[in-house]
Amino acid sequence: MSTTVKQAIVLALGGLGLALVILRLARRRLLTTRYAFGWLGVGVLVMLAAAAMPFVGDLGKVANITPTAVLLMVSSAVLLAISIQLSISVSLLQERLRSTAEAHALLARKVAEIEARQSKSPSGHENEVSQDTA
């Protein structure tokens, strides 16, 4: 069995293993559907890379690098793209969290103002009700 075939088998098994782990994580709801599909796509790409090993060898010969180096370059590019996408997602979530915290602070201030007005009201009834609930 040639080295290329062995590498293809290892890649295919790795892609299949990745897909199974992702499905298990998604099933346990540790990974959202959005990210599960993304990582399943990566697993499928790994399995397709296994099928494309002979072409990777030819591409390596043209570029004068080994097939392993070609796969490492491609996988590095995929991981870089994933990192950028996750950075964008985190940035958007951080902005949403900041907006939510600001809205919460404004609402808390309004509630405090309303409670202060009610406690200063001349009728003792509202003051008694607010003390009963406290």
Describe this structure in words.
With 134 residues, the protein is an all-alpha fold. It has one domain (3-96). Helices cover 89% and strands 0% of the residues. It contains 5 helices and no strands. It has helices at 3-27, 33-51, 53-63, 67-120, 124-133. Helix 1 (3-27) packs antiparallel against helix 2. The chain is elongated and about 95 Å long. It starts with a helix and ends with a helix.
Q: How would you sum up this structure in a few lines?
A:
The chain is mainly alpha-helical and 134 residues long. It is built from 5 helices and no strands.
Distance between the termini: 79 Å
Gyration radius, in Å: 29 Å
Unreliable parts: none
Work out the helix count. Answer: 5
Cα shape: elongated
List the helices and strands and how they pair.
Blueprint: H1 3-27, H2 33-51, H3 53-63, H4 67-120, H5 124-133
Keywords:
mainly alpha; 134 residues; 5 helices
